[in-house]
Amino acid sequence: xxxxxxxxxxxxxxxxxxxxxxxxxxxxxxxxxxxxxxxxxxxxxxxxxxxxxxxxxxxxxxxxxxxxxxxxxxxxxxxxxxxxxxxxxxxxxxxxxxxxxxxxxxxxxxxxxxxxxxxxxxxxxxxxxxxxxxxxxxxxxxxxxxxxxxxxxxxxxxxxxxxxxxxxxxxxxxxxxxxxxxxxxxxxxxxxxxxxxxxxxxxxxxxxxxxxxxxxxxxxxxxxxxxxxxxxxxxxxxxxxxxxxxxxxxxxxxxxxxxxxxxxxxxxxxxxxxxxxxxxxxxxxxxxxxxxxxxxxxxxxxxxxxxxxxxxxxxxxxxxxxxxxxxxxxxxxxxxxxxxxxxxxxxxxxxxxxxxxxxxxxxxxxxxxxxxxxxxxxxxxxxxxxxxxxxxxxxxxxxxxxxxxxxxxxxxxxxxxxxxxxxxxxxxxxxxxxxxxxxxxxxxxxxxx
Length: 449
Ligand code: NDP
What we know:
Elements: H1 3-19, H2 24-43, H3 45-49, H4 52-56, E1 61-70, E2 76-87, E3 93-99, H5 105-121, E4 128-133, H6 142-156, E5 165-168, H7 175-189, H8 209-226, E6 236-239, H9 244-255, E7 259-265, E8 268-271, H10 278-290, H11 296-302, E9 305-308, E10 319-321, H12 331-339, E11 344-346, H13 355-363, E12 367-369, H14 371-374, H15 377-391, H16 397-419, E13 420-421, E14 424-425, H17 427-445
Parallel strand pairs: 3-4, 3-5, 6-7, 6-10, 10-11, 11-12
Antiparallel strand pairs: 1-2, 2-4, 7-8, 8-9, 13-14
The structure holds NADPH dihydro-nicotinamide-adenine-dinucleotide phosphate.
């Protein structure tokens, strides 16, 4: 990047940081986008004149609310609820809810910001949003989770709707939580409508929605590999996390003939050199989704290694898929991956790599699929769930999977279109510019609002 552009990025970031102090993850997400976009905006002055960059970093609306609830002992607990309605230029706000003790305004703003570009990349008409709470579902009874989610929805219902804002799941919000949220919305509004995605299949959900993010991350990796005449077949994969995204990334990678050798949770990682096959994955799903246990139990059951307090990036692999959380691969770990021969990183999680780690991937010219492109399959199928709800019709598993696969291929093509630099494909630049253009053009068409 030339010095002139670098100076413009720094000036822009200085203003963002001054306006949003201590929101470090938000600064990080904006910096990554602005670095790609500023040269493009300079070459296309209509975006500069309309101050699109200055506008996209300001949420259209931020909601912050009290969530009081009674625990099983009858004691009052108080959490904080949020919804960031970031950008509605190309459709209703769309993005997940996260329930995790680390949730704060800066984290949700980073996620909402990423969501705007990701949703645009899917080609579906969805704006960007994100929300959640600092509530920790871990260790809570089903009744406590229900009372909390009902209280959360008792405020949120005023601000959302199938044509306004359509939340979904994220960390700590799976089928159970979406069910409780939907039930409370329906009661308060007296209407059965597609206001949330990730619903159960019997009550308006879409087939393949649970699988979509993980499958999509693998489809994206496969597309990247194809550009080098290669495929997932025979590749050794390391995956972090053991939740929704990690589970289905494991399933699809295995189906494609790869061998997944690690999974993790916040306690540590397991290393199974034999590979996590279908039977072992069924055990992980039961352990995590039903028993809500720890991944260390896998190591006890199958007699493999468990590394407490560590992340799986020290294990030799061809393909790494971070599928747990933000900032889970640092510079040193990225270097370790490269030294061990890893040449594909496909991100199931949002912003899992620190900027220094991304610099290492770029320096080694590996196939690096950043989250907003590689994990867009989840929200894409959420968009398809919205379409099915509007149609009052359900597509088959094969139909949804085929549409998901095509969308991931299209996202890949967009990244190539905007990111190709000689022989090398800069997926960061490609995804950021590709996602930006549609939103920016819609904002210009809609005037200064
Ligand atoms: P889940 O809650 O199902 O699983 C999260 C997994 O990550 C768990 O194994 C959890 O371990 C681990 N984890 C969470 N926080 C941390 C942390 N701070 N340190 C270490 N491990 C952690 O969430 P999802 O699988 O849905 O989401 C995973 C990632 O994918 C997130 O970044 C999310 O934003 C992203 N994503 C999800 C989509 C979806 O459709 N669900 C769509 C697009 C992106 P533990 O149980 O110990 O907390």
